[in-house]
Amino acid sequence: MLKEHGQGSRPPSKARVLTAGLIGNVMEWYDFALYGYFATVIGQQFFPSTNPTASLIGAFGAFAAGFIVRPLGGIVYGRIGDLVGRRRALTLSVIAMAIPTVAMAFLPTHAQIGIAAPIAVVLLRLLQGISAGGEYTTSIIFLAEAAPDRQRGFYSIWGLWGSVLGMLMGSAFGDLLTRTLTQTQLDHWGWRLAFALGSLVAITGVIIRTGIGEDEASEATKTPLKSTLGVHRPEFLRVLALNIASSVGFYAVYVYLVTYLEVVDGISESVALSLNTDVMAVLLLLYPITAWLSDRIGRRPMLMGGAALLCIGAIPFLQLIHSHDPQLIVRGELGFTLAIALIDGGKSPANVELMPAEVRCTGIALAYNLAEGWFGGTTPLIAAVLIARASGNPIYLGVWVGLSGLCTFVTAAFFTRETAFKPLLKQAQAQTV
User: Fold this and answer.
1) Does domain 9-430 correspond to CATH entry 1.20.1250.20?
2) Secondary structure string (H, E, C) spanning the chain
3) How far is it, in rounded angstroms, from Cα 253 to Cα 248?
4) Quick count: other Cβ atoms within 10 Å of Cβ 3?
5) Other C-beta atoms within 10 Å of 340: how many?
6) Per-residue pLDDT tens over the stretch 136-155
7) Dihedral sign from CA coordinates of 67, 71, 75, 81
8) Of the candidates 108, 284, 299, 391, which lies 20 to 30 Å from 411 by C-alpha distance?
9) Could you give the CA distance from residue 173 to residue 176 in angstroms, rounded to a whole number?
């Protein structure tokens, strides 16, 4: 919620509000995307082993570490957002996220500094995870609270839109590097250039967010974490479960499967990145549509439809992706993309609407980051282990993704009330059960 600076001043434009909400997510996911896409190179240089799979698992283990601490970051930034204000939390998070991204570009390898190299990678992933812990959740709260009642879905989806844009930028830039540099150049310095350019996104984010006005006085409880886990525990658990399917699906498809296509199926890096870039572009197109639809038919139909598609389609979609045929691969990826777009169109506003105003930042940040960090962020590591055990067959990964869809479907169908057609503050007062 924003207030004007004084008499005669005008509130920020709709375009600036939406841009301020999405820009930090661009920064966050640009970094995570680059790490996922260059996991093979990072594994070789920072987690060297005679077994390429062991190096890859080491790299994804560091990746997962950043997600495991995200709930801690959610608590920290959620408290700032509830007690100090949304804008200050957003500005601080985008600055803090830039540090590990740029540092990664200049980090010495295992060959240069030995065991200190993988330790440094893990520490940077932990710092990134803490910094990112409150970014997405604070941004969708900021966007939803700034939106007219019947447009909260459309407004809040731009936080996720920024996330996918960051992923798309990382994928596209990775694709460009693989097409213009030799493998030796890419391994030696090309991947570092991609991380260094993340500083430009951070600078843009700070400039935009300093021009969106000041926060109104907070009405939050002085003990938001205690209240979240106490009196508002049902809402907290509900939001957590609603976020599991999209978190697991997202990281399986847009982070892990790029590496899977390269390492297991032998698809060239350039083709894998190109296919991933294409389907993420489709996701960007679908997000505003599914968000608009959720404003008209409600959150629950979107959540149930997308979760059911993910549950039923996970194994068939993965079999298409395992076909070695680019045309079939893209069909499998598009199936996942449709399921994720449907879920996210409903979940983005539902997260805000289901959580009472007095603990909204802390409650959503903790619930979302537990789902995102402990289920989604660990999925690349889980997938690498499961597929190694299955000699490259993705069926066990399909079971993992399908179970995540089932969890969200059951929660949406049996434990969640429709929230789309009520004023936001009344919802905040009416959610305790």
Assistant:
1) yes
2) CEECCCCCCCCCCHHHHHHHHHHHHHHHHHHHHHHHHCHHHHHHHHCCCCCHHHHHHHHHHHHHHHHHCHHHHHHHHHHHHHHCCHHHHHHHHHHHHHHHHHHHHCCCCHHHHCCHHHHHHHHHHHHHHHHHCCHHHHHHHHHHHHCCHHHHHHHHHHHHHHHHHHHHHHHHHHHHHHHHCCHHHHHHHHHHHHHHCHHHHHHHHHHHHCCCCEECCCCCCCCHHHHHHCCCHHHHHHHHHHCHHHHHHHHHHHHHHHHHHHHCCCCCHHHHHHHHHHHHHHHHHHHHHHHHHHHHHCHHHHHHHHHHHHHHHHHHHHHHHCCCCHHHHHHHHHHHHHHHHHHHHHHHHHHHHHCCHHHHHHHHHHHHHHHHHHHHCCHHHHHHHHHHHCCCCCHHHHHHHHHHHHHHHHHHHHCCCCCCCCCHHHHHHHCCC
3) 9
4) 12
5) 28
6) 888 888 899 888 888 999 99
7) positive
8) 284
9) 5
Q: Phi, psi at residue 215, to the nearest 5°?
A: -80, 150
Whole-number Cα distances in Å, 297 to 54, 242, 254, 285, 421 = 47, 18, 28, 19, 9
Supply angle C-alpha 352, 358, 363, rounded to 5: 55
Look up residue 381 and give its amino acid: L
pTM (predicted TM-score) = 0.81
Consecutive sets of 10 residues in the chain, 433 residues long: mean pLDDT of each?
49 74 81 78 82 75 78 83 77 80 88 88 86 83 88 93 85 80 86 84 74 55 82 94 95 86 84 85 95 97 97 96 92 96 96 91 90 85 87 88 97 95 61 39
> d(Cα 347, Cα 303) in Å, to the nearest integer?
7
Q: What is the CA radius of gyration of the chain?
A: 21
Taken in order 281, 286, 289, 294, the sign of the CA dihedral is negative
In whole angstroms, what separates CA 376 from the centre of its chain? Answer: 9
The answer to whether the CB of 377 falls within 8 A of the CB of 64 is yes
- The token duo for 397 is 């990964």
% of the chain exceeding 90 in pLDDT: 31
In whole angstroms, what is the distance from residue 248 CA to residue 160 CA?
Answer: 15
382 to 6, 191, 227, 263, 397: CA distances (angstroms)? 53, 25, 33, 16, 8
- How many CB atoms within 10 Å of residue 115? 8
Cα–Cα dist 282/334, whole Å: 8
Dist CA 415 CA 133 (whole Å) = 26
